[in-house]
Design a protein that fits this description.
Order of helices and strands: HHEHEHEEH
Shape: rod-shaped
Strand content: 5-15%
Strand order of the largest sheet: 1-2-4-3
Radius of gyration: 33 Å
Length: 146
Amino acid sequence: MGMMNRIFNFLGLQEEEEVAEREPAYEAQEDSEREREREREAGEYRKVKNNVVSLHAQKSSKLVLCEPRNYEETQDIADHLRSRRAILVNLQRVRPEQAMRIVDFLSGTVYALNGAISKVGPNIFVCTPDSVEIQGVISDMMNDNT
């Protein structure tokens, strides 16, 4: 409020005598308002700081093991991914042409969900949503022996 009085005084809308009389009362009021504002800001900061949630407090993650026998089962695997579950897919029991189609479909699903797909063995893949990170590399033993 003191600033407003100074502006009114500068513009000639208020006399200086009135300002001199009112200033002590306004200054005390301004100080208490500033103090309340600081307390409010500190309280809001504490509230924001208390909203931190531990990652361990969330429900546990699951790794789903899938061994499809045909291409039609791929939709169920994609549904697990959409539910934010990591999946280990064993494609050893399907024909190579179907295995390629399944991997292509899962690659598209993983891409759409910003996840990752990684080969962990011969015809075995791990598909993860964006909330799960894959680290490290498993080398193919067949290629290492040549």
